[in-house]
Amino acid sequence: MVGWALRRAAQVRVHLARKASGVCRGPEHQALGARPAALEPAGRGAPGAPGGAVELLGKSYPRDGYSNLSRKVLSRVGRNLHNRPHHPLWLIKERVKQHFYARYVGRSGTPLFSVYDDLSPVVTTWQNFDSLLVPADHPSRKKGDSYYLNATHMLRAHTSAHQWDLLRAGLDAFLVVGDVYRRDQIDAQHHPVFHQLEGVRLFSRHQLFAGIKDGENLQLFEQSSRSAHKQETHTLEATKLVEFDLKQTLTRLMTHLFGDGLDIRWVDCYFPFTHPSFEMEISFHGEWLEILGCGVMEQQLVNSAGAEDQIGWAFGLGLERLAMVLYDIPDIRLFWSEDERFLKQFCVQDINQKVKFQPLSKYPAVINDISFWLPPENYTENDFYDLVRTIGGDLVEKVDLIDKFEHPKTHRTSHCYRVTYRHMERTMSQREVGRVHQAVQEAAVRLLGVEGRF
Fold it and tell me: Smallest Cα–Cα separation from 379: which of 317, 330, 451?
């Protein structure tokens, strides 16, 4: 059994390496060869224009009308903070792994859950969306929300992008950890690159109903109608048992991380790839915090991956979110810091040792505003946020849209943003910030097609 498990793990890694190389489902996912080229910030006339290529992780991807990667985001690929020993994200990952390895053991005495924390972040759009039943018109597919290398390849927006491949490879219990990429606002809680941990478990009829009174008479599947409580192909008994196991598993995990006496509540929600779906919230320092999303896996997804006789659950959580709460880390930019004053606080002998982040000196902020008229079309706020991040980097603490104005005669729209600059390690002068801010202004005009009011 142990030998089989090791061989299966090796086969899965080879299979996924081939997938990342372009050996994917259908001709639209074949590897694409091209010459490398640098990418500028996303926007009008930048990487959205066809021509050239981007080289990433040893492979070349031709640019087309979907390409919207910035140099800043590309510079984060391959950093793998979750695999860096004694980094706070590594500590969270190792604590979760330790819990699952100790708590869930197979019949042979080996861990029930396999862990994959080194899968390539480059996936096909089919893997990221279609395999997970994400509708064609879902907002997450828009260029304003996700990072595309081109029309067929992208940086994964969630670790769920690997679910189908792992299920297809025959795995029925696994964790996936990795960096994910989303275009988003700029503040202390959001960054275009963050890290997720994904968990999946499938059950056969025997596994789910073992130990249940009269379980031999119960079934996983039926043909009925979908309701708020179950899918049309699942029996209510099977759904409730999977839901119970999921919530019990996650409650145990959070108790392991936060300690006993934790108040937890479950909120109904929607995800395209699970139903019913839930968000877990915990009471922490007097407020309810959303920690993760989860649910009973859509049977259509499970069936398409070749596990038609099984039913399962899935969950996904953000490592930064957990680390910020557990260690009192106030700003998401700190996770990318090379400042030893930050990193050495997490060099502990025992990964379960309690750590409370001791704040570094907070240097004064420098605030500058920028106003401009929007172009007639093809402008998104995330384009501007990406541009600011690319030019200002981690000097930018947050960007707030503080004013919108529509001209009563021309009906043109103006936006005013307040950009807060703050260096994590020293004081910055207005003159120094002014040069960065001027570069932002000039790039906004050149790349986004706005008309400056500065």
Answer: 451
